[in-house]
Design brief:
Helix content of chain A: 10-25%
Structural class of chain B: alpha+beta
Strand content of chain B: 25-35%
Structural class of chain A: alpha+beta
Shape of chain B: elongated
Oligomer: heterodimer
Number of helices of chain B: 3
Distance between the termini of chain B: 23 Å
Strand order of the largest sheet of chain B: 2-3-1-4
Number of helices of chain A: 7
Radius of gyration of chain A: 22 Å
Number of strands of chain B: 8
Distance between the termini of chain A: 52 Å
Largest sheet of chain A: 9 strands, antiparallel
CATH topology of the largest domain in chain B: Alpha-Beta Plaits
Chain lengths: 398, 133
């Protein structure tokens, strides 16, 4: 089996000879030419996903005013940021809400503005109202400041998302007899609809199920700019799903990424403040990961199509909120994308929450960057834990 | 009186009753059905142009039957810049005005099929659907 190295691929990128295709294109190439030829001819497969990713946020350093302040509480457009770190550092989390938000007191709440929207405003260069209070120290005497900032005025703005790019996700349905408002959207009663949220055959981690190429230091498309995989994401429990009856493999699930990048070079097209009725505010994040086709095995995984990748169907009316194990079966992304699936004998209309057209656009942009020699592959310092490591989730007692 | 445009919403429990028949027969109203999507045991929606001497009585009858009556004075528009084509609205939209074009998976908004129920306005995660007066 022929092997390629990162160095060889980067040399080809430099000379403008690298063969770079999107994951969609790669599926067709493998069908046409066979796996062996495709894996020899193609150097890089680009992937993409654009969807709400709650575990996101940004570290900001505002710079010091005169006199200096040790910020004890910080608000950005009225949304609190965490400042239990150094004096003028703060972390604005995507799901943070204004203190006067009515939340779900008039259910379902609208959650029109939150931390994700602050991040969108910042990355768009819009002015953001900063308010901070301090308690006064000998070195940091100032007790309050109210001013307007833009992303250009502050020292650093670093997007650091502890859990993004979920490898796979539940297909959410509602078996109860009332409409429910979830992070998977509005779910109508009695199996009225089914929502899913990955880009399937374009989704980064579905194309590298055993983490053969993605690791710490992998250079990626993040929020319209360049970012890096910082670590495995929180709740990174990668596994290969299997059919409980036949034992047939149903594609991977459970992996996640922690990602980092300079917010100042990102774009509001790829970081959008997002609101889920009755649930909360969050941030939609665009991520694209390049997969180097180092060998035929990696090529085989990267060529997995919607028909080979499956999502578990989960009831959000009762089972999910009560942490009841099990699911209502598996459904392929090809079926999900067809517009209807069958659950418990009933035909249910499906809808995605993850934008497939935007995922395709990201894979296309990343492809162009690499073809133009603007983006080189970074060999990971360390690969992420794989299904073989057997990581599993814990249940919080209480 | 010139005809007025109204939107009627039927719950699943009354969608199989002959409500429109009674509206014509008992209240002698003139109607022009602009859009209708009524199925047994499902939520139904109808957009009507309605006129006649017993207009208000007719509306009261509808309300007594559990029909939600709303004037059609608004229009829903899509902010094309903001829409990410995610699709979260497509299984919520009761008339299929918002639907996915396959295989591209692009969200299409067909304003002619929209009955201004405004469910998409709240369901849209990035608030791309807006009500215009």
């Amino acid at each position: 089996m022929s092997e390629k190295t990162y160095q060889e691929i980067n040399a080809r990128i430099k000379s403008g000879k690298a063969v770079v295709v999107t994951a969609e294109e790669f599926i067709d190439i493998v069908r046409e030419k066979g796996l062996t030829r495709a894996s020899q001819e193609v150097d890089v497969v680009t992937t993409g996903t654009f969807a709400p990713m709650c575990s996101s946020g940004a570290f900001l350093n505002f710079g010091h005013p005169a006199p200096r302040i040790k910020m004890y509480r910080v608000w950005l457009n009225n949304v609190p940021a965490y400042t239990g770190i150094a004096a003028v550092d703060a972390y604005i989390g995507a799901t943070e809400l204004p203190e006067d938000d009515p939340l779900n007191s008039n259910h379902p709440g609208e959650f029109r503005y939150g931390g994700g929207h602050v991040i969108e405003d910042l990355v768009a260069g819009r002015p953001v109202r900063l308010k901070a209070i301090g308690y006064g120290t000998d070195c940091y005497p100032r007790r309050e400041i109210e001013t307007t900032i833009t992303i250009h005025d502050i020292n650093e703005a670093i997007l650091f998302n502890p859990r993004n790019a979920y490898q796979n996700y539940n297909c959410a349905v509602n078996l109860s007899n009332r409409t429910i408002y979830t992070y998977m959207g509005i779910l109508k009663p009695n199996l009225g609809n089914a929502h899913y949220s990955t880009s399937g055959q374009l989704s980064p981690l579905l194309k590298d199920p055993h983490f053969k190429t993605i690791g710490i230091g992998t250079r990626i498309f993040l929020g319209g700019g360049i970012g890096y995989v910082a670590w495995h994401g929180t709740q990174h429990f990668p596994a290969i799903q299997t059919d409980p009856d036949s034992g047939r493999e149903l594609g991977p699930a459970g992996g996640t990424l922690a990602v980092i990048g300079d917010l100042k070079q990102m774009s509001p097209r790829w970081l959008m403040g997002t609101s889920y009725l009755g649930y909360g505010a969050t941030l939609s994040v665009g991520i694209g990961v390049p997969i180097p086709i180092l060998n035929e095995e990696i090529a085989r995984y990267a060529a997995a199509s919607d028909a080979e990748l499956y999502a578990p169907i989960v009831d959000y009316g009762e089972a999910y909120p009560n942490q009841k194990p099990g699911n209502l079966g598996y459904v392929s992304y090809a079926q999900l994308k067809s517009g209807k699936i069958v659950v418990q004998g009933k035909e249910v209309p499906t809808a995605p929450l993850s934008s497939y057209p935007r995922a395709r656009e990201i894979a296309g942009i990343l492809k162009k960057w690499i073809q133009n020699g603007e983006f080189y592959l970074a060999e990971p310092v360390q690969l992420l834990p794989s299904p073989a490591d057997g990581l599993t989730g814990k249940v919080l007692k209480g | 009186m010139s005809p007025r445009k109204i939107v009627l919403r039927f719950g699943p429990e009354i969608s199989d009753k002959p409500i429109i028949y009674r509206l014509v027969k008992d209240y002698d109203l003139v109607m022009n059905i602009l859009k209708a999507n009524v199925n047994p045991q499902k939520e139904g929606i109808m957009v009507l142009e309605l006129s006649g001497d017993n207009y208000e009585q007719g509306l009261n009858y509808l309300r007594e039957q559990g029909v939600t009556v709303q004037a059609l004075t608004h229009e829903v528009v899509r902010n094309e810049q903001r829409c990410t084509m995610c699709g979260a609205c497509t299984a919520i939209c009761p008339t299929g005005a918002l639907h996915l074009r396959r295989p591209e998976m692009e969200v299409v908004f067909d304003g002619d099929s929209c009955v201004v129920c405004q469910l998409c306005v709240k369901a849209c995660p990035v608030r791309a659907m807006e009500v215009k007066l």
